[in-house]
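#lab-general

N.A. 3:47 PM
ok so I finally got the sequence cleaned up, no stray characters, all 238 residues accounted for. can someone with queue access submit it? mine expired

B.Y. 3:52 PM
send it over

N.A. 3:53 PM
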Amino acid sequence: MAAESARQLIQRHPLQRLESPSRGTSATLHALGLASFAYSFSYLILNPNPINASYGWHMQYLTIIGLFLAALTFTVGLLADLTLSSRLFTLKNTLSVASAPMEVLISLLYWSLRTIDQRLVLPEWAPVLDLKTDASFHAVPAIALTLDLLFFSPPYSVSVIPAFGLSSCIALAYWFWVEQCYAHNGFYPYPIFDEFGEKGRVALFVGSAAVMGLSTLCLKWLYGRVNGRRMDVRNKPS
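B.Y. 4:20 PM
back already:
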C-alpha cells in the first residue's frame, strides 16, 4: 500500500486535480484537441489563398505558429497518455509553459482587434470565417490548453522574470521572422502591421510580450484558485 501511494505521488503532483498521464480523460482531452487542430490545418490546405504560395506559408501568422505549438504540446501529451511515460509528461508540461500563454495572447488579441475592426486582422481579400472555423483557430487552442493546465498538469513553477523573459524572446523572434517574410513578400501577414507603421509595430510587439508574460502569471494564479497552493497541501491534516 505504501509503495503504491509513493508511486502515485511521483506520478501525480499533490495539486494536480485529475490523473495524467492516463488513458482515460486526459487522453480524451488530448485526442479531441488534436482533432480540432487537424481540422484547422486541413482548412488551410483545402481552402488555398495567396498566403499558401508566399514565403513563410501560413507560418507567417502568430495564430498558426501558436496552433503548431499547441498541436506539438498535445501530441506529446497524448503519447504520454498512451505510454504512461513520465518523461513525455514532463516534456508536455514544459511545452505548455510557452504554448498555453501564447494561445491566450492570440485569442485576446484576435477577438479584441476583430471587435474594433476586423480589417486589422483580416486582409481585404480574406473570406469571412464561419464561427466553427474561426473558433478552431482562435478559441479552441486557448481553451484546450487552459483545461489541460488546470486539471491535468502540475502548477507552473516559472516566476515573474522568466515568464517575461520567455515572452520577450518569443516576441523578438516573431518580429524578426515577420520582417524576413516582408522582405520576400512585400506585405505583412496582418493588416495592423501596415496600419501602425514601424514605431507602432515595435510598440505592438512589446505590448504583446507584456500581455503574454501577464498571461503566464494569470494562468499560474488561476491554477492556484482552482487547485489550491502548495502551502495549502502542506497544511492539510493527515
